[in-house]
Amino acid sequence: MTQALIVIDVQNDFCPGGALAVPGGDEILPAINAKLPDFPVRVFTQDWHPAGHSSFASQHAGKNPFELTEMPYGQQVLWPDHCIQGSDGAAFHAELLTDPADLILRKGFRREIDSYSAFFENDRTTPTGLEGYLRSRGVESLVLVGLATDFCVNYSAIDAARLGFAVQVDLSACRAIDLDGSLATACKGMKAAGVTLFGS
Questions:
Q1: d(CA 55, CA 77)
Q2: How far, in Å, CA of 188 to CA of 183, rounded?
């Protein structure tokens, strides 16, 4: 069974000092780098928003970061401006070994819709193309690592399981934002979807 490592959004804006820093986000770099040689297929995802993206709180009068709003596709957390295309914040962390990546998949580039998952936009129907790539490489099993456990890793894992992949998440190589208990909710949801969690 061909297994792929999916490295989710290990970017400067999600690491300490970034615009949307995940606590301890840079602590996972050694673990991720150490895993790379063990997988025949390695995919890195990159949040890649245009300036003025609709998920930014700055685009909604009277709204603050981390508040909720309704979008045509459902409820959306509003975020600080982050991972703007071409910015230093959108770049991968300098200590992440990116040369081994077979594919770098950029997501969230459509201004009107956010994209947590590596597989679908937040409408849960618009595909990113990752499924087709993995199928063409003969991949049946995935291990997910990266940022943040309760958002992009969570959504990616659940979508991958829904698509029929065998999915594991290495929690030792992930970190969470944990908004109002979102980490516990995400872990419960991933397990319910058939995702195997390990390394906590």
A1: 7
A2: 9
If 0-12 CB within 10 Å is exposed, 13-18 middle and 19+ buried, where does residue 164 land? exposed
Spatial strand order in the sheet of 139-147: 103-107, 41-47, 2-8, 139-147, 166-175, 196-198
- Check residue 161 and give its pLDDT: 98
Is residue 152 among the annotated active site residues?
A: yes
Told to judge if 9 belongs to the known catalytic residues of this protein, a careful annotator would answer yes
Coil, strand or helix: which one is 91?
Answer: coil
15, 107, 150, 187: the active-site residue: 107
Phi, psi of 182, rounded to the nearest 5 degrees? -65, -25
Task: Report the pLDDT value the prediction gives residue 88, as an integer from 0 to 100.
Answer: 98
Q: Are strands 74-77 and 103-107 parallel, antiparallel or unpaired?
A: unpaired
The predicted model gives 156-166 an average pLDDT of: 98
Whole-model pTM above 0.85? yes
What is residue 181's predicted lDDT score, i.e. its pLDDT?
A: 93
Of 9, 13, 159, 170, the active-site residue reads: 9
Q: How many angstroms separate the most distant Cα atoms in the chain? A: 51
Rounded Cα distance between 142 and 40, Å, is: 11
Catalytic residue among 15, 152, 174, 187: 152
